[in-house]
Amino acid sequence: MQCLLDADVLVYELAFSGEYYDDDGEKQIREFEFVAELLDQKIKEIEAECWADEPSILFLTNDSTLNKMWNKQRKRQGLPPVDYKPNFRIDVAKSKPYKGQRKQEKPFHRDNIRAYMLDNYDVRVANGMEADDLLAIEQTQAPPLTTIICTRDKDLRMVEGMHFGWPCGKQLQYGPKRVDKIGELHYDEGKNKLTGEGSKFFYAQLITGDSVDNIPGLPRGGPRLAYELLEGKSSESDMFRAVTERYADKLGDGWETYFREQVDLLWMCRELDGDEPKRWEEPDES
Question: How confident is the model over 44-54, as a mean pLDDT?
């Protein structure tokens, strides 16, 4: 088993561990060696939980700063430079800016730890897409049950195969667990909260949207509606029909354009078309 690590999550989690506030309320920065050791130990712990017998692969989402570091590494390796391309979802998002509400402070050691990853681990950089897409592509293209996606990001649980999420704060450990293609949904009526895996979770997000990424979904669609529409469905074509009928009823003429926007924002790509991520395709109704 080989761990496919969401390094975007690891970067922020561990880089923030490298700073703290003292008794006077002043921010203090720990030496980078402290953060590097935390990363090395965290990866070993994840690999142990997932019965890994091969070195992990780390996945990072490109940005202009990372692209410069990546090209320096590529130059040392005798490889040509790569031009930075933003995540394609930025142009796809017309209704709301993709992740437009995020104003997260960048931890002091963010770039230090990414440079350390590039120098010490097998790192794949997602250019023009997200690390999530590369993780999904790698798992989908690998022989079944030879890889395991390791992340605390719930969105990747729409991808078939093995999954693991390490605990952090109030977020409990997830798995290791095998997710099948259709998947399942879980609805907590008291909290009006929906969780799930597989295709059911993808179609559920088309109803609920994803507030973390500023994706609106179906207007006034919520967890209860998504659960009621999809829980009894056993095929992707049935799920597609149920969701698109609700979009058409709610939005009327032109619903297809808005629906397509939501699909391209939420879908984790499973293969490449040349160097570009291949977008979602409508399921075969036959």
Answer: 96
- Statement to judge: residues 168 and 203 lie in one domain: no
Look up the CATH number of the domain holding residue 162. 3.40.50
Residues 12 and 150 in one domain: yes
pLDDT of the residue at 103: 67
Whether residues 91 and 191 share a domain: the answer is: no
Confidence category of residue 198, pLDDT binned at 50, 70, 90:
very high
- Looking at the fold, whether 150 and 270 belong to one and the same domain comes out as no
256-259: long-range contacts, CB 8 A cutoff, minimum separation 24: 258/95, 259/206
DSSP 62: -
**Is the pLDDT reported for residue 286 higher than 60?**
no
pTM: 0.93
Q: Above 80 in pLDDT, residue 217?
A: yes
Q: Are residues 39 and 63 located together in one domain of the fold?
A: yes
Structural contact between residues 18 and 34, judged by C-beta atoms closer than 8 angstroms: yes
Counted residue by residue, the chain has a size of 286
pLDDT of residue 23: 85
CA distances from 10 to 55, 57, 58, 67, 212 (A): 16, 13, 10, 18, 18
- Number of structural domains found in the chain: 2
What whole-number distance in Å separates Cα of residue 220 and Cα of residue 43? 41
Reference 126, options 169, 170, 87; nearest CA is 87
Residue 81's domain spans which residues? 1-179
